[in-house]
Amino acid sequence: MTPRKIIHIDMDAFYASVELREQPHLRGLPVVVAWDGPRSVICAASYEARRFGLRSAMPVASAKRLCPQAVYIPPHFDLYRDVSARIHGVFRRYTDLIEPLSLDEAYLDVTRNLQNIPYAGETAKRIRAEILAETGLTASAGIAPNKFLAKIASDWRKPDGQFVLPPEKVAAFLETLPLGKIPGVGKVTLQKMRALGVETAGGLRRFERGELVNLFGRYGYRLYDLARGEDNRPVKPDRERLQISTEITLPEDVPLAQAADHLPHLAEDLWRQMQRKNVQARGVTLKLKTFDFRIITRSLTYSSALPDPAALAQAGAELVRRVPPPREDAFRLIGIGVGHLLPQGSQQDLWHGEDIG
Asked: Could you give the angle at which helices 120-135 and 77-91 cross, rounded to 10 degrees?
């Protein structure tokens, strides 16, 4: 079987970079994209801000102690979506197999690309060049035979770089790969691995599959495969959604309560989308992605339309309370969506129900 050619494109500090493009006089300063409030958390931080230890999902109060001189800019999600759409337009010139992960990153399967370019590394180079020319923003890329390896590779030469990991070099690469680079290995899992004397992906190979399952539960099955560079998941093209949604991918696994701090701002963003599309909604869905990449959803359906963004955020908080008590540092993504859409101004009063998934 011919190995796939997978590219993982990851925009560099996307929200912050878009804001700096719009306000170039702030270049070189520690810039934070966040609402400035006591309960706010960082959506994105420029590379200058990251040097002070600032990062996504950090409470703004903590960030201000670490870097009092940081410049705070409220997020403009409509702008980020518009820029993301232009980036995806570049992707579609090269392949139809595009799997968006968020506004700023996606997997592309270029095994058979539309430009008939023989090398995936050259394909990635052209994509990055076109993104820069059309948006003024830089992207990093990882090129590998599967999604797991491509995602790791995209982080290897950040920012504004790319790293090619051909099949014949995978084993040697994994032998010295730090465990913290493996998606899903958070602080708690890392501590447990180190207690076992394991520091690299290569070190995990001395464990049998059953041993890893005993140690790490169902995630042990995936760890066994990842330690060997195996990942058979195909790139799944985005499909039209029957709801409107917004979500944020966190750079590291966090407890549920910390992930939920993003809900009020996600609700405000989602409400603006609803207003722009001139719809109201009776259904709300919470989406969570766990450290081991399981998707958890919880949904509610109301008998009448939600009246305002505060009610939407309140519904999200109620759904958070319905998630079973998780392990620490369990979540890497949180999102909220609305369904059962009606035109603005509709007075329909339909059945009241509840769907928990």
From this structure: 140
Largest CA distance in the chain: 63
Q: Write out the residue limits of the CATH 1.10.150.20 domain(s) in the chain.
A: 168-238
The answer to whether residues 95 and 109 touch, using CB atoms and an 8 Å cutoff, is yes
Tokens of 25: 């006089």
Domain with CATH 3.30.70.270 in the chain: 1-165
Q: What is the DSSP string of 79-96?
A: HHHHHHHHHHHHHTTT-S
Catalytic residue among 19, 48, 99, 105: 105
Is 105 catalytic? The answer is yes
The per-residue pLDDT for range 320-346, each reduced to its tens digit, is: 998 887 655 578 889 999 988 877 765
Instruction: Decide if 292 contacts 184 (C-beta within 8 A).
Output: yes
Token readout for 17 is 């970079």
Looking at the domain covering 244-355, what would its CATH class be?
alpha beta
CA 182/CA 219 separation, integer angstroms: 12
Residues 6 or more apart whose CB falls under 8 angstroms from that of 258 comprise 41, 57
Within the chain, which residue ranges are assigned CATH 3.30.1490.100? 244-355
Q: How far apart are the first and last CA of the chain?
A: 37
Whole-number average pLDDT of the chain: 88
Over residues 24-67, the pLDDT tens digits come to 999 999 999 998 776 688 889 999 999 999 988 888 989 999 99
Domain 1-165 has CATH 3.40.228.10: no
What is the value of pTM for the model shown? 0.77
Residue pLDDT, tens place only, 95-146? 999 998 888 999 999 999 999 999 999 999 999 999 999 999 999 999 999 9
Does the domain formed by 168-238 have CATH 1.10.150.20?
yes
